[in-house]
Amino acid sequence: MTSAFPPRDTAVGGYLEPIRAGGAVLWRDGPAGREVVLIRRPDRGDWTLPKGKLKNGEHPIMGAVREVEEETGLTPVMGRRLPPQRYLKDGWPKQVEWWAATPARPDGRIDYEPNEEVETVEWVPVAEARTRLTYDHDVQVLDNFQVGPARTFPVILLRHLSAGEKRSWNDSDLLRPLDENGRADALALPRVLGAYGSLRAVTSAAARCTESLLPLTVECDVPMSTERALTVGPEGGGYDVEEAREVIARVLDERRPTVVCTHGELVPHLLTEALTRLGAPLSQQRGLRKGSFWVLHVSEAGDLAGVERHGVRE
To answer: What's the rounded Cα separation, in Å, for the pair 276 and 255?
Structure first.
């Protein structure tokens, strides 16, 4: 008689907190066509895509960047997010977050010293890579990469960082600065948003918005401009939704990697305008908490290729 219950290779009818990991399909257009990076691990004798476990409290974007750098010697510039992979590792669930990425070095030259963890790092044509990969879940990641556009640009919608309580600020609300937590997050922001490559910044003129992006503009040499249409004035007013929508429409039309920093009142309107213009369905949750951001990945043809949401700290 066949059992009606699934095999006990993990918890049945319950939940096991997954091992969390991150990685990237690192790609380039080579002389003979599109290539991706594969690594060979000597202890397992396998061929796989670069990935690894996140450290406790590590941001998934930064963890994926770190692991790819450690395993390939190449710094990835993150492109569109790919579907995560979930599978069992020694009976425990593992969840790997994936991105498409390009090497920061234009030539993609591999300068890697083999070690006990990774003995070979190699650019491999996509068709060959698919047959060389050891694991089916890696093949699925490569297939997910191939069915969408490889080259995309990011449009990032950021709600300004923590700036204390409005009621405790006695001066003009436009001048309200970041608080201690906001300043700490502003210092962390370049490492997170810098993973998406060279950006330009378009922001509300309010102090809490410009201060949110200031470390990014300095550390990553990012040009910044202010937009009156993105600025919420005193008492939460003084803004025009249609003018704000025109700003995000212009950003999309210019097709440049951009971070847009604004206020909570405007974020849902900007996201709605962007998704509508890209012909995409609308999410039921379009707002952001302070210090969080949406990333819209847009193809060269102007189509939506992916959407992800993060906090500066996760």
So the answer is: 16
